[in-house]
Amino acid sequence: MVVFSVAATPSCSSQEFKCVTSGECISLGFVCDGEEDCIDGSDEKRTCDGRTCSPDQFTCQEGQCIPDTYRCDHVKDCLDNSDENNCNYPHCTEKTCANGACYEQPQHCNGLQDCRDGSDEFNCTTQHCPTHQYQCRNGYCIPHSFVCDHWNDCGDGSDEEGCDSNSRDCYPGEWGCPGSTACIPVGKVCDGQPDCPEGTDENNSTAHKTCSLEQCSALSCEFLCHLSPEGGACYCPDGFTVANDSRSCVDYNDCQIWGICDQLCEDRPGTHRCSCADGYFMEQGHVCKANVSAGMPQLIFTNGGDVMMADVHGRFVRTLVPSQGKGYAVGVAYHWHSDTVFWSDTYTKKVYSVNSNGANLKEVLTTAVQSVQNLAVDWINFKLYVLEATMERIDMCNFDGSNRVTLVAENLQTPHGLVLDPTVGWV
C-alpha cells in the first residue's frame, strides 16, 4: 500500500504576501521591490502597476526605486543601469579611475583601493604592501587570505598562480582546471575557447585528450553529462553539487559561497534566500543598502589631524573637530545609541569624545596615554577599549574614562588594529 500525503497550502499573515503558484508566504517588504522573490514572480507582476518612487528616490527605467544620491555616482545601481545614463560627470583635475570616477594624485599606488574598481592600484612598480598583505603583479594589495582561494582578486590573476590545486573544491556549477586552483563555469568547458591556465579545458593533443561524451554512459550521471577533455563530466542543477561518487547530486549550502549575500543568508533545498538587517533594504536580490529614510549613512574618519565626516560617496565632507595644527587624530570609534564620537590624539596624548553635531566636546582620558593607535566601542555594555601601541597593551574604561583597567599586557608586538564583537565576547 502506498500512502501519499499532501501538504496544506499555508495561510499567510497580514504582514505577508502569498505567491500565486507555490502558495509560499513572503514578507510584504519583498513585494514590488524590483526583485522576484516568488518562483513565478507574482510579487512583482500582479500588484505593482502604477508604482511610484518617493521624492528622495530615483526611478529606474524598469521601475526600480533607488536613493536619489546614487544617481550619476559611477556605480550602476539600477538593474538596467539607467541611473548612470545622461550624466554630466565633473572633469577630473588630477587622476581618473577606469570607471570614470575621480581621485587625487597622492591616492595613486598608495596601497589602498580608492577607486571602486581598484584601478588606482594597477601597474604600480614600487613595493608598498604591508607585511600582512600580498602584492599582486600589477601592484595591487590584497589580504593574504585571498591568495589561492579560486577568485581572481588581483585582477591580473597573479594571486591564483602557483597554487596547490587541491586547496579547495570548486563551487556548484564550476569545473576544476587540472593542475590549477582555477575554477570555471561548466558551460565554458569544451566551448572552443581556452579559459583554464594552459587551456586544459579544451582539446589537448599533447596530453592526448579530446573533448567528448564517450564516458557519459559509464558515469550514469543523475542530472546531465557535459563534454570534457576526459570524455565527460557529471554536473548538477543550480544549488546542488556532485557527490563523492562523481554522479549523484546532493544539496549544497549556498550560504557557504563567499559574497552570495551581503548580510543574511538562509539556505534552502537547491537554492538560498538573501535578506538584510534592520535599517537596510535589498537591491538586485543580494545587495543590502542603508535605508536613507532613517538618515543618510555617514563616514567618520581622520585626515591625520582633524576629525571629519562625509557621506559614503566621499561627498559633503565637513570638519567635525578641527585640530588647528595642534593635534594629531588617529583612532576613531562611534557609539550609535549615545551619538558619541571617540578619537585619540597622539600629539596631545589624550582621548576625546564629542557628539556628531560637534557639541559636548569632552576629555575622556588625560593621563597614562602614550600612543593610542586605535579605539573600539562595546555598544552593549557601554565600554571603550583603548589600544596603547607604545605600552603594548589594551585597556578598557567607561565612556567618561572612569574605571579604567588593563585587559591585555602580554604577547603584543607593535599592535595597531583593534576590533570588538561584544555579541560573542571577542576582542
TrEMBL record:
Segments forming domain EGF-like: 52-88, 215-250, 254-289
A GO MF term: calcium ion binding
SMART domains, per database record: EGF, EGF_CA, LDLa, LY
Alphabetical UniProt keywords: Cell membrane, Disulfide bond, EGF-like domain, Endocytosis, Glycoprotein, Lipoprotein, Membrane, Receptor, Repeat, Signal, Transmembrane, Transmembrane helix
CDD domains: LDLa (cd00112)
Residues spanning the signal sequence: none
InterPro entries per UniProt: 6-blade_b-propeller_TolB-like, EGF, EGF-like_Ca-bd_dom, LDL_receptor-like_sf, LDLR-related, LDLR_class-A_CS, LDLR_classB_rpt, LDrepeatLR_classA_rpt
LDL-receptor class B repeats by residue range: 339-381, 382-424
Recorded topology in the membrane: Single-pass type I membrane protein
Alphabetical GO biological process terms: receptor-mediated endocytosis
SS bonds (residue pairs): C53-C65, C60-C78, C72-C87, C97-C115, C109-C124, C129-C141, C136-C154, C148-C163
EGF-like calcium-binding domain: residues covered: 251-289
Subcellular location as annotated: Cell membrane
Family the entry assigns: Belongs to the LDLR family.
Protein name (database record): Low-density lipoprotein receptor-related protein 2
